[in-house]
Write a structure and sequence with these properties.
about 35% helix, acyltransferase, transferase, alpha/beta, Plipid/glycerol_acylTrfase, Glycerol-3-phosphate (1)-acyltransferase, globular, 7 strands, acyltransferase activity, Lysophospholipid acyltransferase family protein
Length: about 240
Amino acid sequence: MSRPTRPSRFWETFAVAMVKPLSRLLVKRDWRNGDRLPKTGGVIIATNHLSWTDPVLLSHFLYNNGRWPVILAKSGLFRVPFLGRAISGLLAIPVDRGSNEAARSLRLSAERLADGCAILFYPEGTCTRDPDLWPMVGKTGAARLALESGAPVIPVAHWGAQELLPYGEKKPRLFPRKTFHVTVGPPVDLSKYAGRSSHADVLREATADIMAAVTEQLAELRGEKAPETPYDPAGR
């Protein structure tokens, strides 16, 4: 029995009615290269993380470009009254960081990819701690998922969400109205890893390639040169 690749009509209508007007109200749009998003089939959308608002703003972008974003959300949110029911209805995947449940979230992601879903993945695992807000060293989950599933990885970079709501702050900066910039790059070439076992070195190399592709797109958006070595919070 096939699983749905989109929410029920009720939950999709509910989410669109909430997100689209809110996104239009909060930010101006600078959307680029949406035609690079595959319109069908399982795909991993790898992106940078700047603010608690960027999942909402990115979801609007992806939806308008023909893909329903399946988001990985903290497992605790699924236990919040109504919110948990809503994000379950929206096909979100629970993630319990730092436990064996992390493997379960990857398994569920692989199942959704096989069904033809678009998984919105933050390889950094959290908002960047780089002082200049460049992408950090990524965790290997997205690379493992890509190599084991064969699904394409599409690098997406964005800029501006941090101006609306900087990481760690609770009150958004509404005025002046910010611009949300987003661009899509070509699929990350992971062909050199085909047929190789998914041991730690391979996963780290593939992850570095994914993060480099995201960083390249962000450098284009910002019109700046990215650092040669990504920030590593574990080795700072």
